[in-house]
Amino acid sequence: MSREIHPREAREAWVRGEPAMIRMGIHVEAVRLPARFVHARAGGEDRAAVEEVFRQVGIVRAVIADAHHRWYYALVPPGTSAATDAPRLACCGAGGYLGVPPTHRVGPPGTYWLLAPPTCEADLCDLGALRELAAAAARD
């Protein structure tokens, strides 16, 4: 997988069914959440329960699952990395890259969309909701 930065190259990777390496900070950034605390909050790894953990804090789209590395990535608006100060939340901001799966990849194997991909900026995740999720996990 190479670092795809040209939209044409990203689309070609997605047509092949592969993730495209997208540079963060231009259109989106990503907040990385450890699967262990999401799964602890969900009471296990059941997909419906994991999705519900996100929905309970108002996140209904724009979450990528990387089962191999055991992370969830919540896509957030550009500039969010400057405000990410919550424990357990790490932001991939400007200059970083994230492997973004094709929109049709909604399950394993590989990286996939746990919650539907965003169609506009309003679909991106709210940092406040992610902070709430991290705080709830810390209490568990």
Q: How would you describe this structure in keywords?
A:
4 helices; alpha+beta; 140 residues; 5-stranded antiparallel β-sheet; 7 strands; DNA primase/polymerase bifunctional N-terminal domain-containing protein
Question: How would you describe this structure to a colleague?
Answer:
- The chain has helices at 7-15, 35-42, 47-56, 127-139, and strands spanning 20-23, 29-34, 63-66, 71-76, 90-92, 97-100, 112-115.
- By secondary structure, the protein is an alpha+beta fold.
- It has one domain (7-139).
- Strands 5-2-4-3-7 form a 5-stranded antiparallel sheet. Strands 1-6 form a two-stranded antiparallel sheet.
- The protein is globular.
- The N and C termini lie far apart (37 Å).
Query: Poorly predicted ranges (pLDDT <50, ≥5 residues)?
Result: none
Proportion of strand residues: 15-25%
Major sheet description: 5 strands, antiparallel
Q: Strands of the largest sheet, in order across it?
A: 5-2-4-3-7
Shape: globular
Query: Roughly how many Å is the radius of gyration?
Result: 14 Å
What is the average per-residue confidence, as pLDDT, rounded to a whole number?
A: 90
Q: What class would the helix/strand composition place it in?
A: alpha+beta
Helix content: 25-40%
The oligomeric state of the chains shown is: single chain
Q: What order do the helices and strands follow? A: HEEHHEEEEEH
Protein name: DNA primase/polymerase bifunctional N-terminal domain-containing protein
